[in-house]
């Protein structure tokens, strides 16, 4: 499903990842933990195809990512991957619905009624009442749920989330983990960077980055 092989990543002379390999499969959740500055975001940006400046190989859906083919990389990003960023990356002046529609704009013309799919996801995530509210009127937990809702609009095979529960209280954190668990049951691989051990313990697999290496803890 997703496989990174022998990744070496440096910023200038500073090595961040030294021969790191990582695999993720459908229907599983993965937590990646590690101290601040250990390289979690660096790794996840590579997994998300957002950083090509490393040595190693990345396979997504059994195909090696070819960074020289922009079209192919965009297709992977739009159709295979869903991202939830640390800082939400929502368009604040747009409504919840408009934000949800954004990823679908890059898809090829199709007869799918995106609004029906969006409505279903919004209901699932308890956001339907906020559909026409502007994002800058929402609470942090609500914005985080919208960011997740938007990441699953295109039915990705892999969800990559950087600190999706950062700054959330227990009940919002649990709600978000329930959402990830129900997404995983649809056959999605969910990869979550977190420093929250409650979140890590709710994932099927646990990895830790330290000393430029990644180790499987669970
Ligand atoms: N664009 C960059 N240029 C140079 N160094 C960078 C850059 N981005 C990150 N780094 C360095 O790489 C190291 C790993 O950063 P990274 O953001 O991956 O850490 P992290 O594990 O995600 O930390 P946090 O938990 O604080 O988010 C840090 O020492 C950071 O200073
Ligand atoms: Mg980070």
From TrEMBL:
InterPro entries: AAA+_ATPase, ABC_transporter-like_ATP-bd, ABC_transporter-like_CS, MacB-like_ATP-bd, P-loop_NTPase. Keywords: ATP-binding, Hydrolase, Nucleotide-binding, Transport. PROSITE patterns: ABC_TRANSPORTER_1, ABC_TRANSPORTER_2. One of its GO terms (molecular function) is ATP binding. Its EC number is 3.6.3.-. Residues 2-217 form the ABC transporter domain. Transmembrane segments: none annotated. It comes from the Bacteria. Belongs to the ABC transporter superfamily. This is ABC transporter ATP-binding protein. The gene is lolD_10.
């Amino acid at each position: 499903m997703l496989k990174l092989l022998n990744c070496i990543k440096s910023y200038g002379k500073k090595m961040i990842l030294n021969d790191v390999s990582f695999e993720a499969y459908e229907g599983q959740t993965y937590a990646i933990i590690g101290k601040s500055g250990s390289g979690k975001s660096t790794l996840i940006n590579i997994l998300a195809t957002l950083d090509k400046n490393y040595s190693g190989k990345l396979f997504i859906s059994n195909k090696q990512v070819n960074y020289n083919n922009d079209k192919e990389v965009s297709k992977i990003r739009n159709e295979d991957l869903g991202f939830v960023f640390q800082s939400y990356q929502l368009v604040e002046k747009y409504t919840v619905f408009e934000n949800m529609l954004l990823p679908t704009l890059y898809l090829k013309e199709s007869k799918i009624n995106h609004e029906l799919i969006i409505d279903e996801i919004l209901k699932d995530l308890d956001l339907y009442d906020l559909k026409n509210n502007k994002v800058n009127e929402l609470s942090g937990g609500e914005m985080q749920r919208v960011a997740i809702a938007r990441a699953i609009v295109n039915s990705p095979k892999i969800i990559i989330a950087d600190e999706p529960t950062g700054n959330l209280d227990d009940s919002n954190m649990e709600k978000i983990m329930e959402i990830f668990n129900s997404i995983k049951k649809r056959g999605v691989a969910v990869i979550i960077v977190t420093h929250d051990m409650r979140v890590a313990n709710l994932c099927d697999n646990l990895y830790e980055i330290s000393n430029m290496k990644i180790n499987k803890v669970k």
